[in-house]
Amino acid sequence: NGRALPGCQRGGRRRRSADSIMAEQVALSRTQMCGILREELFWGNAFCQSDTHILAKRKIYPTIWWLFRDGLLTENTFIVGYAGSRLTVADILKQSEPFFKATAEEELKLENFFARNSYVAGQYDYQHLNSHMNALHRGSQANRLFYLALPSTVCEAVTKNIHESCMSQAGWNHIIVEKPFGRDLRSSERLSNHISLFHEDQIYRIEHYLGKEMVQNLMVLRFANRIFDSIWNWDHIACVILTFKEPHGTEGHGGCFDEFGIIRDVMQSHLLQILCLVAMEKPASTNSDDVRDEEVKVLKCISGVQANNVVLEGEATKRYKDDPMVPHGSTTTTFAAVRWVGVSFILRCGKALNERKAEVRLQFHDVAGDIFRQQCRCNELVIHLQPHEAVYIKMMTKKPGMFFNPEKAELDLTYGNRYKNVKLPGTYERLLLEVFCGSQMYFLRSDELREAWRIFTPLLHQMEQQKPQPIPYVYGKADELMKRVGFQHEGTYKWVNPHKL
User: Fold this and answer.
1) How far is CA 281 from the centre of its chain?
2) Average pLDDT of span 193-213
3) To 5 degrees, how large is the angle CA 291–CA 203–CA 286?
4) Would you state the pLDDT for residue 34?
5) 122, CA 20 to 30 Å: which among 191, 246, 328, 329?
């Protein structure tokens, strides 16, 4: 299907935002979407990304290849790598190819993909970069997408030079910015103020967790099912638990991790975004700004996190402090749990735990007037984000047999069973497609980012100034400490202040 989206125009002219036609896209099949994107991209794009390290070789280049392989990028799309390193296209692709997962049947297509790659080495000579892009198909008239896989310390200089020297003269210009978006409220606002050189509708602050299948499913579960609408409130839900667990430690990346810690790396970003999707009111539409307006409203209702509502755990000496990249005497937290006074939301995340898991768990109030001799347990709705996508409801049912005994069972929708022949696209695939379509629903807006940092900055500054000693936990056993402070999966959650233990 090669039809264009309503409102799309050729020749790089301004087109109607994909948000305004989101309702039309919802019903489209993958084949139809491929056709739409072919039409959208046909008139030429120069894709510029700058970084050749881990993110580039493991995520960015493989993702571009998968889009090309699936017919979502056309012959007139070109990929330009740009950095100070003296590399060649062959060097970059040699590093990236193991992550492409290309089959023998795809060898010819892979060669065609390689032929559309080029690399410019230089100490940020943007005039040279612009001349290189102008020599490609449609030159200065092409749409340009700049992917900045860069540390925030150089982001200001790079964006300034791109804005001054490399912008398309007739097509659209989009810029993708990777985390971290600063270290606290002040540094984040400084970065946001600088990249306001670009219009907000040109900026895509990528939060890769928003590209996950089950995270995107949260809105559909909430707002497309009448059965959940009437019970999604404080009168029925006792507690919401957002969990992010990794079984491994820092694995040689201790220096990088120690600079930011688990609160900045996961809690202030991944988990806070999920919290917004769980807690927000129904948006007026699926328009990006309608959705993000509701997310910002949630964040504005959350006061700054206080130290007495936080459990800080530092990983046991085994693994973390033995990492040669971790500074001596580090007090960086690797596990943390937060609860806001008056709101039963628990955010917990950590490394070196007993399993790999990310989930949203809603615990409902106990049944009033239990007539089954206190055998009833609370109902739970669990959305399993990774590694195995699933939605299941824990409920009470009669145990089969002669006696009238209730037991807990699950209504289980496991994607691996229900959708056996469906290939779920990767998070970066989804998000890059959103950028090409011009949709910003799954990207952070500047006011959303500001509110997120406002919530956590006081705590982060207090930790850095006072350097509290995290409570140690044995590798893989942080949950035992959580039980001591009142966290539990069964029954209605009751908070116990860890500072009074």
Assistant:
1) 21
2) 92
3) 20
4) 40
5) 191
Q: Quick check: bond before 400 cis, omega within 30?
A: no
- CA dist 38 and 29 (Å) reads 14
Given the residues 270, 365, 384, 489, select the one marked as catalytic.
270
DSSP at 309: G
177 — pLDDT class (breaks 50, 70, 90):
very high
Put the strands of the sheet holding 406-414 in their side by side order.
406-414, 390-398, 380-386, 357-364, 237-245, 345-350, 335-339, 310-315, 471-473
Contact 119, 82 (CB under 8 A): yes
> In the block, which residue shows the tokens 């504005």?
300
Task: Name 19's bridge partners.
Answer: none
Whether 53 is catalytic: no
CA distances from 70 to 108, 199, 408, 435 (A): 14, 31, 44, 17
Q: In the CATH hierarchy, which fold is given to the domain comprising 18-209?
A: Rossmann fold (3.40.50)
More confident residue, 301 or 488: 301
pLDDT for residue 344 is more than 50: yes
Please report which residue ranges of 288-381 form alpha helices under DSSP H: 288-300
Q: What pTM was computed for the model?
A: 0.80
Count Cα atoms within 13 angstroms, Cβ side, for 229: 6
CATH class of 211-494: alpha beta
Q: Give the least confident one: 141-145, 394-398, 482-486.
A: 482-486
**C-alpha torsion sign, points 46, 106, 63, 91:** negative
pLDDT reading at 370 higher than 70: yes
Pairing mode, if any, of strands 77-83 and 117-121? parallel
CA angle 354/501/328 to nearest 5° reads 55
Nearest to 152 by CA among 276, 264, 30: 264
In this structure, the number of other CB atoms found within 10 A of the CB of residue 199 comes to 8
* In the chain, % of residues over pLDDT 90: 30
Domains of the chain, residue spans: 18-209, 211-494
21-60 residue pLDDT tens: 444 444 444 434 343 343 333 333 444 443 336 778 888 8
